[in-house]
Every structure is written in structure tokens, then in C-alpha cells.
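FYI - complex with flavin mononucleotide, inputs then prediction.
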Amino acid sequence: MSIGQDRLKRRMARGVEFLGSEVAILGGAMSWVSERNLVAAISNAGGFGVIACGAMTPELLDAEIAGTKALTGKPFGVNLITMHPQLFDLIAVCAKHQVGHVVLAGGLPPAGSLDAIKANGAKLICFAPALSLAKKLIRSGVDALVVEGMEAGGHIGPVSTSVLAQEILPAVADQVPVFVAGGIGRGEAIAGYLDMGAAGVQLGTRFVCATESIAHANFKKAFIRASARDAVASVQIDPRLPVIPVRALKNAGSELFTAKQREVAQALDEGRIEMGEAQLQIEHYWAGALRRAVIDGDVEHGSVMAGQSVGMVAREEPVAGIIATLMEEAAQALERRAA
Ligand SMILES: Cc1cc2nc3c(=O)[nH]c(=O)nc-3n(C[C@H](O)[C@H](O)[C@H](O)COP(=O)(O)O)c2cc1C
């Protein structure tokens, strides 16, 4: 083992212990993309795969977890969205399968969900979009945090990964493992965040074009062609609409989303729907649009969610190759620290 590889191993030790994987790299859950094949491939390659439950019913999640278990004996996690109407049934499905790690996305854990997840011995991972929320989540008993910046693909907050990492890592990294996400395309960046105190990292965009990913060939082609500046955040047209910005490759679908927002805003104006229903309609729109792009291959009218690291996705290759490259780049960066 080289000096760099040894340094990398030691810096990842805490994350590896927490996840039960070989390397502290999480495959960020991506709706429609992170299903059994990609999740199992990431875990089999030594990383930590996470199933994206998204809008799945408890029955579908049940089948997806069973399917993933059939493909890997390694640990993997499940990502649940807090606003799912059957959140507690989904938690029960995870418990039934003794899923070791549950990631809760989409806001603070709703009342009772933290206890329900931890009651069965699962570890709970939450997103911390600000330092104050990171501290609050730790006080409430969360086991680990993901700090995700606005460079990421999918739903994003307003602050960059580099700023969140600087604000949050020094303040809380000694209390719980913190995984940094958003905009990571190469191992040098992984080495940097580990040096700052991160227990590991989470990548989404970089795994979309894995050979094992079931994303449609058109979706993968769009990723391979795109550069960083093509992955843009959606625009919120009405301040009343609680629209969380989404980063995706710009296309005709971006325009359709603006039209959808206008339609929902008008329905609100006319008192035809409540605010909660408005938010749900917007979320359903995204779920449908993402499916059209990932599964059907309609990359013009669907939503091609992608992070800014998309410019560093150059080809389709097996997950094991992607992880090996990232680890090699990180080890070489750490090796150079000696000079
Ligand atoms: C196509 C796509 C779909 C995503 N869907 C979800 C999701 O359902 N739930 C979630 O928590 N994060 C989702 N994400 C975010 C990823 O889990 C991950 O945190 C993010 O991709 C990391 O940033 P990166 O894209 O710069 O690597 C999605 C990202 C992409 C690119």
C-alpha cells in the first residue's frame, strides 16, 4: 500500500466503520436511477449504495429491497422522502428487511419518524442544509449527516458545497460522521473534504452513466455530452409557491416546468387548491418528468436532473472502475501532501 493509499484508508476509517462498506463513498439516492442494479453494483464495488424510494408504494419498496438483497450481500441503505404520505409504512418495510441505514430527505424528520427508524436498530442519516439545522438534528439523535451543496443534481439548497463544508465540518464533525455531497467529480476533491473532517462523501451524478445503471441510453448520452454550465437550477416564478429548486440539464422540459408553476399559482390564486396540495402537485410533476427522461429516454421534455460535475462524466463504465478511479485520484492527492 502506498503512503497515499494508507492516508486515504485512515481518513475514511470512520465513515467505513459507520457504513459497514469498504470505502466511504455513498452512491446518493437518485429517483428512478438508484434501483436494485445500480445500488447492488455500488455496494458490491465496496461503496455504499442507497435505494431511492421516491414515490414508491410500500409494496414496491418491499420488492426493491428484496431484489437488491438478491444481488448483493453487502450493506446498502434506503432513502425515504419525508413528505411521502405513507412514510411510516415505508419505515416498517425497511425494518422488516433489517435495512441498516435509512436516509431521510426532504426536510426535518416528521414527529415520531426518528424513533420509528431507530427503534429497529437502523442508523438514521439526515441532510443538514445549514449549521443551525445540523446542530438541531444532532441534538435530536440523528446518527450521521449529509451536507449537500447547490452544485448537486436534483433538489438543491441555495448554498455551495465548499461554504457548507467550511461552516459545518469544523463545528460538528467530531460529534457525528458527516458526508459531503454536491459537485464531486474527482478524487482530489474527496481528499480535500476528508482533510477538512468529513467521514466520507456522497456522489450522484458520477454514477448515472455506470454500465450497471438502468438509465436510458439517451439519458446517459445527454450526461456524456453536457458540460458543467448546462446543469442549471430551475427558476421559481411565484414567491408563494414553495418550489425547491432542481438542478437539471436545460431543455424544453425546463420551460414546461415554468408553465406548470404558472398553472399551480393560478389555481392557488383562484382558491382551487391549498398550499400543501400545490407543493404536492409540483413534486408529482418532477417525479413524472424525471421518469420520462430516465426510463423512457425523453431527454427533451423530461427532467434530466444532473449536477455540475456532469462535465466530468466522459463515458459509460462499470461502477467498480468509477470507484477505483476516484480512490486512485484521492490517494495520489494525499501522497502529494508529503512533499
Ligand atoms: C437524477 C438525480 C435524482 C436524484 N434523486 C434524489 C432523490 O430522490 N432523493 C435524494 O435525497 N436525492 C436525490 N438526488 C441527489 C443525490 O442523492 C446526490 O446527493 C447528489 O446527486 C450529489 O451531488 P452530485 O450530483 O453533484 O454528485 C438526485 C440526484 C440526481 C442527479
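The pocket of flavin mononucleotide is lined by residues 28-31, 33, 52, 54, 79, 105, 148, 151-154, 181-184, 202-206, 305-307, 309 (CB under 6 Å). The radius of gyration is 19 Å.
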